[in-house]
Amino acid sequence: MKPSIEKLKKFFKLEEERGYDDKAVMGGLEGILDSWIADARADGIGEDLIKVVSSRLRDYQRLSKVSREEILNGLWKRISQEFDLDSLQKLPKHASEPRKQRTKKQETQISKPEIVKSIPSSSSLLIVETKDDHLAALDAPVSVLQGIGPKYAKGLSKIGVLTLSDLLYHFPRRYDDYSKLKTINRLRYGEQVTLIGTVQSSQTRKLQGGKLKLVEAIISDGSGAIRATWFNQPWIQQYLRSGSQVVLAGKIDQYLGRLTLNNPELEQLDQENLHTNRIVPVYPLTSSIRQKKLRSIINQVVSYWAPRIKDYLPENIKTGENLMDLQSALLQIHFPDSMDSLEAARTRLAFDEIFMLQLGVLEQKWAWQNQIARIYQAEDYWINERLNNLPFSLTKAQKSALGDILKDLSSGHPMNRLLQGDVGSGKTIVAALAIAVVTSQKGQAALMAPTSILAEQHYKTITRTLSQSDAVLMPSQIRLLVGATPAAEKEEIINNLANGSIKVIIGTHALIEEPIHFQNLQLAVIDEQHRFGVEQRAALREKGKNPHILVMTATPIPRSLSLTIYGDLDISIIDEMPPGRQEIVTRLLSPIQHEIAYRLIQREVGKGRQVYMVYPLIDESSLSEFKAAVKEHKRLQDEIFPNYRIGLLHGRLKPSEKEVIMARFRDGDYDILVTTSVIEVGVDVPNATVMIIEGANRFGLAQLHQFRGRVGRGEDKSYCILIPQNEDAIENKRLKAIVETNDGFVLAEKDLEQRGPGEFLGTRQSGYTNLRLASITDTKLIQKARHQALKLFESDPKFQSPEHQLLRKAMRKFWGENHDYGEIS
Ligand code: ADP
Ligand code: MG
Question: Which of 429, 552, 574 is the best mutation target for the ligand 1 pocket, counting ligand atoms within 8 Å of the beta carbon and taking the most?
């Protein structure tokens, strides 16, 4: 019998035995519906039947006992007909249901009582479980718990708690250690404390003509007294009746020489805490949920469920990494016996989070690695000949990246590689050589870039490299396809791609938007990968059959992050600039030193060089950014540099208009380009030697570094001038960092330190939002988890062995059902 049907049978039978009092399940039959529907779908039960069951049970609570009996019998009749089962009356009574003989193996699977009837009186849970599927049982809505009505459930849903499992994983925000409380006379300025005291007095005062309300209280504990204040939370006074005992938590401040607490957290003292739990959890709340009740509900769920949960982590991993078991970890994270066991619980649960992430990305990687791809073997002499025909020799880092790629191409499995390198590090030439290998052996290659101007730039580089300096291909075998390509030419390109006479196509989104078919696409290169969506990258890949994929990015990712974020890709890093590059001189000027910047501009333009001037986002609206740039453009042209040709680029232009302006700047039609932040992507204008960034304090590190990378692309000495909006910002940490180093990786690490990982995650997979305890920057933890995940994949890549079944389920749950872990990016 399907588990979901089995479940219904048990409920129905139990209801019958109890005389249809709707108490077979706490909260009533209605309460199980949501989770039952999910189970039924998982069992493949037809939607018709699901609909009938749910519509009948929806109103069960409001029916008379006679009607309830009718409904359940009717429903069961329908079910038994559909599945050829006995009628309800013929079923044995639940209590006397003979236990089937079970083999030892089954016994271990059915390790929990099927219906739990005797639960400690403190806990009023009655949850019916089937088999070992506690994961499904934990998906029951919180309303199955006694004491949680619809209103409270709604409050919980606001903090993201919908199911029992959510409650188990609703971790405390902090802990109050009642064994280590401080008395008021021992408090020190600046420390974070929890203290217990009695309210001496309290009052509400109006400030600023009644606009603000200030609640004040004097709290004493026998050793002394302290003043606590709350701004604009007038309702708080009702909890401050004199004589009542309260718990306050917050940071000790100072006011007129005396210690105070400003806006501390306030809680009624629960005497029990003083005696029972010495370390008390404090949970994240909303206004409709009070600490004490939530704590007691979680206590119920944890004390009932934590011991019954099965640990999905294989024994050898737990021993290997010295991890606490899941049962204890879930207990200890909520109600720790000691700070040590709390730490152990945290470590275990944080490990799980990262481990699940790694399993997800590795599964993706494994799936790729097991596809078959065409083998492209390049002989050494052939490669050397290509290298000899280049106008320069490759840097060590370029050679090593090329080595990685050649190995991938000859492996028989699709390459799935990320080529990471700072702006100007020379990624394109490496991609060009990969293209040479594939296209000289009957394959076709595509290179997709985010803008036409970039596509055009790549087209020139690749034509120059492969059919001018070298003669691997004829010029006609390399083509450019962008939105503006004339219709007749498009058609010709489409034909010649289909018949195989074009070997390399370089283009923009047009490559996936136009009805293009390749004769034999074997290599897809995607430049500036973060500028494309998941679907777009997949669309290009799907134009071939398991083609080799190379994605490129100029955004340096801190090493500590790349293992996690790009765990499904192989990574090559170009961490070295071609020789002869001049270090870009970066200077920070105060807002009153504009003159210095103008003199530099004059000098460089006088030498025939070109200048970028970037204007910041004034506020969030692109309108003001646009206005600032327009205004500055006019001012510069009219007042400062009337003799120079000054272009203007901003986000309100159509993409095609932007490209025209960029192209004119590249071709030397402008001396100065005034621009908003739209000028970010890797356009190569070697003649540009000055980058002025106005309002520099408004930009992030990564963005500043990208801007700076627009200059210094030729042989001439280049300058980057940062001008913050106000004097104070001279002290800005980010600006100092950018002045100190030109190394994108160092800056990325700093960016991570200062702003957290959010910036780097971008469009990557959803699993990252599931991290509650682990930090995505905890390199040690990530390495441990990755090591264990790799070992597991070596031994059981498809999670087939019985001891990995629970793990597999837990992992699906972590990543969300039907999630394919995203696309490679
Ligand atoms: P990015 O990595 O930002 O895409 P590009 O591929 O555009 O960098 O390269 C920047 C410039 O450096 C190009 O003009 C390219 O020809 C040149 N270049 C690349 N590799 C070398 C090298 N090993 N030696 C000298 N110049 C190089
Ligand atoms: Mg590039």
Answer: 429
